[in-house]
Amino acid sequence: MDLRSFGLFGADTPADAALDALVNDPAVHRVEAHTDLNFVKRHTFDRSGIELDFGGHRVTTTGIEPNTNDNPFGAVLYFKGRRTGSTLTAKLSAPMPDLADIFEVPDAGAFGVGEWWAVEIDAKPGGGQYEKEVQRLVQVTQRVDGTHIRVNYKIGWDLAAGRTFHWTKVEPVTRSHVRNMVFEGVPDADQLSGSHPVAYEYAVSCDVSGIDATGTFWPVVMRRWCTYFHTYQCQLKNPSSVTWGGAGYLTQQIYCLYGHVEDCHTANARHLNDWTASAYGYVTNCHGDGDDQGPFVTHGQFEHDLVYTGNSGLMTFANSGTAWGGAAKRVSVTRHVCSWFVARVAVTDLTLEDMRVIGNAQSGSGMIWINADGAQLRGCTASGPLVISQSSQRSTRPTVVADSAFTLGKGAEVTAANVSPAVHLERVALDGLDGASFKGTGPLVLDACAFTGKPDAAPSAFAHSSVTVRGAATRTPVSC
């Protein structure tokens, strides 16, 4: 259906009533805009199976009603599924291992194959109030026996016996897509007066594409409790705020599964992409400039199995604080360029390949900082230092840096005193050594490495329990 059939030929008349009429008509499955539009309402829909295509026209929100307090779901278009009254709790009688997809439940007969449920584990004993390893919208795929079901998700963490899952049956919005608009947010707005185009909650297979946004407050595309989605060819320039918590993002995903963010761009924004308590996400060919706030982040709420390929922009992982767990696992980054990379907290089994870090005027830029918990770097180069510290000890694989090059400043600390596992540097070039220190307590293996410094440089000091050197070249004094 064409919005012009409701007499809308421009932005002079608000398009809200026409949009409501079309979206709420079950016979309508596609709505098209062929002119610029203005909206003054914030719409909530529970509609599935519809596509809104704005045809690349301007969408404005001049005179829009105020948002409610601290509400990133107060978008112009908010698609929301329904939590039903069906709830269950299930206490684990035995440990549940990493990558398990069979869940213990009190009665498998209460779950129908094909049904969708929001599943959430209780907070980790002795941890922060938000330390929950599992918060997902999942589909039941099999009744295994009377007390076990299989779902479409493999967990990412080992769970001890005695932990409790909380299940709520959900009727999700499905296949409701938003496409092709040039969205102009309210200028100089705050969290109440600001506007943003799209939000989804309890949604499955809902895609967003072709949104070019300017001046938004909350994320351009906000998602929570979403599974199977594609966000692509979207842009954000100069949001209203990059300092208010949660503001200034292109896209944020909370409790999400199987998302793909692709071919997106931000300029002078806070985050291009934020995974929060999410898993199995993929980010490709996305780029952020004016990126001192960090385009690529994870919240640190037990995210796992995330892949980034061919992107550019500052990147930090799991930095939001211990109340959320400060943890992520199995994160892989390939062919990335940025001014700064930090994954210093409990990021386990990090993989970096072909990363190029070039510092700028921002203090601390130029570095690669990793957690010595199964991190493996190959083919990485930084204009600044390599920093290795340790804040977790979950991995079974060694920490290895190979075929890489870094430049150290005076008195640089390469391995921190809290690094206890073995660290392997293989064919690594460290330039600019001048009083560098390797303070870790575990074994250090240097295989075919090149350490260089000026003739008058202070010696490098090694505190590791053992230092094994194979075929290394040094042009600076060392002391062990």
Describe, in short, the structure shown.
By secondary structure, this protein is mainly β. The relative contact order is 0.07.
How much strand content do the residues show? over 45%
Instruction: Identify the overall geometry.
Output: globular
Helical region count?
1
C-alpha termini separation: 76 Å
Low-confidence stretches: none
Radius of gyration: 25 Å
The helix/strand class is mainly beta
Give the % helix.
Answer: under 10%
CATH architectural type of the largest domain: 3 Solenoid
Total E-strand runs:
46
CATH class of the largest domain: Mainly Beta
Largest sheet: 32 strands, parallel
List keywords for this structure.
480 residues, mainly beta, Elongation Factor Tu (Ef-tu), domain 3, Pectate Lyase C-like, six-stranded antiparallel β-sheet, 1 helix
Describe this structure in words.
The protein is mainly β and 480 residues long. It folds into two domains: 82-171, Elongation Factor Tu (Ef-tu), domain 3; 174-479, 3 Solenoid (Pectate Lyase C-like). The radius of gyration is 25 Å and the shape is globular. Strand 9 (135-145) and strand 10 (148-151) form a beta hairpin. Helix content is 2%, strand content 48%. It has a 32-stranded parallel sheet that branches. A six-stranded antiparallel sheet has the order 6-11-8-9-10-7, with no helix packed on it. The protein has a four-stranded parallel sheet with strand order 36-39-42-45, with no helix packed on it. The mean pLDDT is 95.
